[in-house]
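A student in our group prepared the protein record below, which I am reviewing. Here is the record exactly as it was handed to me.
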Amino acid sequence: MLDAPFGLALAAGMLAAVNPCGFALLPAYLSLLVTGDAPARSVAVGRALVATAAMTAGFVTVFGVFGLAIAPVAGQVQSRLPWVTIAIGVVLVLLGGWLAAGRELPGLRLPRPGGRPITRHPGSLFVFGVGYAIASLSCTIGPFLAIVVSSLRAGSLASGMGLFVAYAVGMGVTVGLAALAVALAQGALVARLRRAGPVMARAGGVLMLLAGAYVAYYGWWETRVLAGGPATDPVVGAALSVQRRLAQSLQEAGFPVVIVAFAVLLAVGIAGIVVARRARASNSGGT
């Protein structure tokens, strides 16, 4: 059985991936993996793993820096975080509109009707993870400070670093599970829509725009609640009902089930790569 503090850190990391502030960004992130081309399974699985590592690194970097540098004044800062969430949402709306218009972002080159495939640079996904983390701070910094930073501040460096790694693993495995599922389904999905590649690329931008709009709206709702306004909102309420179901499903499954599911999908992906390579070798040997 997992040691309680490390189990809590793993659970907090898992739930951070579907936190109320930033969970709308997860579909936008996954759309970046499936947009455009229909790569070989080896490329799709590798892309999912690299993207997960880059995004998780961006996420935990923000939390690590914020936790260690801002922890002494977290109470004063936390009340202003919704404004940061609004700013991140507005930036994502602008970026989504830019992509939806058929333009390109640094590190993310979209396909042309008769030409090149989509390419993604890990740096752009790291930046996406940073944005995901900043948008999520007001919802998730409390558990992070309580579980991880409190241990570091108490002088237990080894324990604090272990909890930090556990938090990152929980976050990464949850995001990686979704990314691998998308990668394994990508070939069949995108192959059917190959002719609509440029349209799919723009659809990813529209999804990012909508996600950013919700994130900005959520931050604005938080500022109203902090100012004494009503806590009920139809848009936020509907989105939170979806988020709660996701979070509850993750909690009920627990980390062992999630890591096993991740391992199974990874094994399926690797097995598919091996079979495809053997088939190609057999075909080339028979000609």
